[in-house]
Amino acid sequence: MTRYISFAEDGTFLFATNMYGIYGGSELASYTRTTGTYRIEGDRLINTATRVATWDSFYGAGSPETVQNVNYSFLDQARFRIVGSVLILDYITYPADAPEPTTMLLESVRGD
After folding, report:
1. Which end of the chain is more exposed for a tag (fewer CB within 10 A), N or C?
2. Which residues have a Cβ under 8 Å from the Cβ of 101 and sit 6 or more positions away?
3. Considering the entire predicted model, what is its pTM?
C-alpha cells in the first residue's frame, strides 16, 4: 500500500491510496482518490472532501472507477507539523465508532 497527499496553491488537495498485490502479483490492484479543499489555521489543517473515486481490479483491468460527490471533514481535527522532509498529521479516526487519535507520517518525494 502506498499513500500520498498533495496540496495545490489554489486550496485543493488530493489524497491517494494505492493497493498492490491483493489478488496476487505486484500490479496495482485498487485505489482510492479523495479530492477537496483545504485551509490552514495555525497548526490546523482543515480539509473538506468533495469527491471520492475508487477502482478495483477485481472487476477487470478495464472496469470504470466509481465516483461519489461528497461533503465531509477529511482527516478530522488534523494538526500538522513538518520535521525535516516529513509531514506529520495528527487527526481522529473512528474505528468501531469510537474516536481514536491517529498519526500519519508522509515523507516528501520532492525533498522540500
Report:
1. C
2. 90, 91, 92
3. 0.88
Helices H, strands E: what count in the chain? 0, 8
Cα(107)–Cα(105) distance, rounded to whole angstroms? 7
**66 in Cβ contact with 26 (< 8 Å):** no
Q: Where are the domains of the chain?
A: 2-107
User: Which band of pLDDT confidence, cut at 50, 70 and 90, is reported for residue 91?
Assistant: very high
Concatenated DSSP letters for 10-60? TSEEEEEEEEESTTSSSSEEEEEEEEEEEEEETTEEEEEEEEEEEEEGGG-
The contacts found for 96-99 with CB under 8 angstroms, 24 or more apart, are none
